[in-house]
Amino acid sequence: MIEVDATSEVIAIDVGGTFTKAARIDVRGVARSFAMVPTPVAEGPEAILELAVSLARSLETPNVIGVGVVVPGIVDSSKGVARYSANLGWRDWPLRDLMEERLLHRVNLGHDVMAAGETEMRTGAGIENGLVVVIGTGIASVTVLNGEVVKGAQGMAGELGHVVVRNQGALCRCGNRGCLEAYASTGALPLRFRDLGGGDADAESIVRELSSDSFAQEVWSQAIDCLATALAMVVSILDPGKIVIAGGLSLAGEALTTPLSASLNSKLLWRASPPIELSHYQQHAGVVGAAMQFYRTVGLNDFSTWSPGLKG
Ligand SMILES: [Zn+2]
Fold first, then answer.
1. Ligand 1 centroid – CA 184 distance (Å)
2. Cα 84 to middle of ligand 1, angstroms
């Protein structure tokens, strides 16, 4: 049994489709030694494993009691297996055991968006009924109903990115056409921008050019409209109290939330829309959630004193 005391720390790693983030997070939720490095997606699962292991080693201290890792796609947390990720190119990858062998620490493997949802739900003021939407290389969501994360029959709830918002629309990585992810993710924005004739630009620079570039404006308003279409469906069915946007695209701030709120309002004329807020953790909700999930495996369950934001 792992003993937790006031000095305990957990190494938390969030393996994303573009960047891998890591930090050492103590029992009060204070993060130290935050690191963010590109994920070697093209080099395959072994290279991603090696990166996670070397990041964990670089964060080691005598106070570390374990490692929390979160990944995208389909994850079997109980068996510690990353079942499938279109972005990271693995199938049935026993990531937990592979990391435990190398690090000689207990490792907990979780789902990145579930972890981000838990972060928003359990820290600070928390969420009793709401929707957390994580927009990064892909798009996924977590529904919190009556204080519980909705997992679904196969643990696959929340694939908001693959809700079809345009009939016969742009090709998505899942093989379908017209998915939200093919229009509004940080992975899709550069593709749509290039298709329009805007040239090469990443999502960050597209947002930066919104005041002056008509291609950027067109791509952005299409992304906003698609997001609002998907959110209107969720609001109609689940009636969330608020919508929290996390992930890389949340860095766009009011350039995202202001038009998105207006567009959602325009699609829900028969009712008031829930407020749309930015995550206090922005793109760090996953890494904080990775630590939280590990602490939960050793009996720590109250995170109400963890304050929003990544400190240290
Ligand atoms: Zn799709």
1. 12
2. 14
Same domain flag for 196 and 248: yes
Average pLDDT over residues 160-169: 96
- Compute, in angstroms, the gap from residue 162 CA to the centroid of ligand 1: 4
How far away, in angstroms, is 138 Cα from ligand 1 center?
9
Tell me the range of 29-38, 59-68, 276-285 where mean pLDDT is highest: 59-68
Same domain as 273, residue 216: yes
For residue 110, the CA-to-ligand 1 centroid distance in Å is 22
Q: Give the three-class secondary structure for 14.
A: strand
Q: Is the pLDDT of residue 304 over 90?
A: no
Cα of 175 from ligand 1 centre, angstroms? 6
Counting the structural domains of the chain, the total is 2
Smallest CA-to-CA distance from 75 within 15, 144, 135 is with: 15
Q: What is the spatial distance between Cα 138 and Cα 247, in angstroms, rounded to a whole number?
A: 9
Centroid of ligand 1 to alpha carbon of 224 (angstroms):
17
Q: How far is the CA of 103 from the centre of ligand 1 (A)?
A: 35
How is the beta sheet containing 74-76 ordered, strand by strand? 74-76, 81-85, 90-93
Do 48 and 152 have their domain in common?
Answer: no
Residues 181-208 have pLDDT tens digits of 999 999 999 999 999 999 999 999 999 9
Confidence band (pLDDT; 50, 70, 90) for 310?
low
Q: Is there a domain that residue 306 lies in?
A: no
Q: Residue 147: which pLDDT band, with cuts at 50, 70 and 90?
A: confident
Residue 112 pLDDT > 70 = yes
What is the C-alpha separation between 239 and 124, in angstroms, rounded?
Answer: 22
Containing structural domain, residue 42: 9-117+282-297
Residue 307 resides in a domain = no
Q: Is the distance from CB of 267 to CB of 226 less than 8 angstroms?
A: no
* CATH classification at residue 234: 3.30.420.40
146, 265: one domain:
yes
Tell me how far the alpha carbon of residue 164 lies from the centroid of ligand 1, in angstroms: 8
